[in-house]
Amino acid sequence: MEIHLPGHIRTFRDFLVHLGIITLGILIALGLEQLVEAHHRAKIGRDAVVSFRGELAYDREQVLEVMSATAGLRGQLQKQIEVIEAMRDVAPKGAIPIEYPQIHFDYISSASWETAIATQALYYIPAPDAKRFSEAYGVFRLFRDEERAGLAAWQDLRRFGADAAALTPEQRRALVEQLRRYESFTYVIDMIGKGTLQACDRALQ
Questions:
Q1: Long-range Cβ pairs for the range 68-77 (8 Å, 24+)
Q2: What whole-number distance in Å separates Cα of residue 11 and Cα of residue 188?
C-alpha cells in the first residue's frame, strides 16, 4: 500500500494531522476488510445450516420409512417361526419353503455434516445450534449402525437355504433362533428410531 502525503509538512502540527489522516485511513480499510470477512464467514455458516436442514429432513423420511415397515416385518417373522416350530423334531414329507422376511435398509446421509467438519464451517455456526445438529447426526449414526447389524442378521438367515424340510432338527432350531434375533432387531430399530426422530426435530426447530 502506497502512502502519498498531501503537500509539504511545515510544522509539527501538520505532521500530526497527516499522521492522523493516514492512521484513520488504515483503520477504515482494516475495518472494511474485517466486515467483508465477517460477512463471508456468516454466509458459510448460513449455507452449512441450510445443508444440515435439508439433509436431516431427508434422513428423517428414511427413518420413518424403515420404522413404518417394522410391524409388518415382525408379523412375517412370527409367522415363519410358528411354521418352523410346528415341525418340531418330525421330518415333514414334502418341501416347506422358507419365507424369508423382507429387508428394509434405507440410506442415511451425513455428507453435509462431514463437509462442514472438513471445511471448519462449524466455527461459523452459533454453539447451541451446532450442538443440536451434532446430537441429531450422532443418533442418525446409531440408527445407521443398527441398520447394518440388521442387514448382517438378515444375511445370516439366508444360509439355511430355501426348504425347511431339508433341514435337520438342530438346523431348524438354529433357524428359529436366528429369526428371533432378527425380530429383536426390529424392536431396537423402533426404539432408536424414536430417539432419532426426537433429536432430529429438535435440530430442525
A1: 69/102, 69/104, 70/104, 70/186, 70/187, 70/189, 70/190, 73/101, 73/102, 73/104, 73/186, 74/183, 74/186, 76/101, 76/102, 77/101, 77/179, 77/180, 77/182, 77/183, 77/186
A2: 84
User: Which residues, including other chains, have CB under 8 Å from residue 74's CB and lie 6 or more apart?
Assistant: 183, 186
Q: What is the pTM for the complete model shown?
A: 0.74
User: pLDDT (tens digit, 9 = 90+) per residue, 173-190?
Assistant: 999 999 998 888 889 899
> Which set of grid coordinates corresponds to residue 3?
502512502
Say if CB 142 and CB 192 are below 8 A apart. yes
Domain locations along the chain: 49-203
Cell of 156: 445370516
Instruction: Tell me if 136 sits within 8 A of 203, measured CB to CB.
Output: yes
| Residues paired with 163 in a beta bridge | 97
Grid coordinates in use for 86?
410346528
Q: State the CB neighbour count (10 A cutoff) for residue 179.
A: 23
- The Cα–Cα gap between 185 and 193 comes to 12
Q: What is the pLDDT of residues 4-62, one digit of tens each?
A: 555 566 777 767 766 677 777 777 766 666 766 766 677 888 899 999 999 999 999 99
Partners of residue 4 on adjacent β-strands: none
Alpha-carbon span 47 to 116, nearest angstrom: 10
Q: Which amino acid type is present at position 160?
A: F
